[in-house]
């Protein structure tokens, strides 16, 4: 049914969906992160946009890998910061240790490369005003929230558009007048045989 729209129309629909998804994801992820009081809503926006892929299946997979990488990066940053960063003004040793751990993991599982920048993101945004645990929860919360918003918008928007296309297609089929079934053709009787019994 959808495939019968033709490749040119499908390409236009996909392009329009990508624009709509990205726009909605950027706005909504920022609004939600800001409403929740997260310190750096920009990371929610970035994550929402990175997660959006061409298909809903790819978006879901991207979100799952991004979520796993975020948690690993946060998990590497916490002990490194606690053990090697007594003062947030001196983050280099902790950053180096956390990135080394994450690089070893990303080497084995390339789709978790987000852990490479999550770890320094947590460490380098730490302040004396809050504990490292608070900072880690904020940064990973921003990234995970953005990813969830991006994935949810993709799934919901695609679902709504596909339903709408299906409904329009059914409405079009319902509006097409049915042609009466033709009666079976009667065999021709030769003229010379008419009237004889």
UniProtKB/TrEMBL annotation:
Region listing for Disordered, in residue ranges: 174-197
Gene Ontology CC annotations of this record: membrane
Subcellular location: Membrane
Alphabetical keyword list: Membrane, Transmembrane, Transmembrane helix
Residues annotated as domain Integral membrane bound transporter: 28-152
Transmembrane segments: 63-83, 89-107, 114-137, 143-162
Main location: membrane
Recorded topology in the membrane: Multi-pass membrane protein
Protein name: Integral membrane bound transporter domain-containing protein
Protein's organism: Salinicola socius
């Amino acid at each position: 049914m959808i495939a019968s729209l033709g490749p040119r129309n499908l390409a236009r629909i996909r392009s329009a969906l990508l624009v709509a998804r990205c726009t909605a994801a950027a706005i909504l992820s920022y609004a939600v992160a800001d409403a929740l009081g997260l310190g750096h809503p920009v990371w929610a926006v970035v994550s929402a946009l990175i997660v959006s892929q061409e298909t809903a299946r790819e978006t879901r997979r991207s979100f799952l890998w991004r979520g796993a990488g975020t948690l690993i990066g946060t998990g590497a940053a916490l002990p490194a910061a606690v053990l090697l960063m007594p003062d947030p003004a001196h983050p280099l040793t902790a950053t180096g240790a956390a990135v080394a751990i994450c690089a070893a993991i990303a080497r084995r599982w390339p789709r978790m490369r987000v852990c490479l920048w999550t770890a320094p993101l947590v460490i380098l945004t730490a302040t004396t005003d809050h504990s490292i645990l608070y900072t880690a929860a904020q940064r990973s919360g921003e990234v995970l929230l953005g990813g969830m918003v991006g994935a949810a918008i993709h799934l919901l928007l695609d679902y709504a558009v596909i339903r709408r296309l299906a409904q329009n297609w059914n409405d079009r089929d319902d509006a097409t007048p049915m042609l009466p079934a033709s009666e079976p053709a009667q065999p021709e009787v030769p003229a010379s045989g008419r009237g004889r019994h």
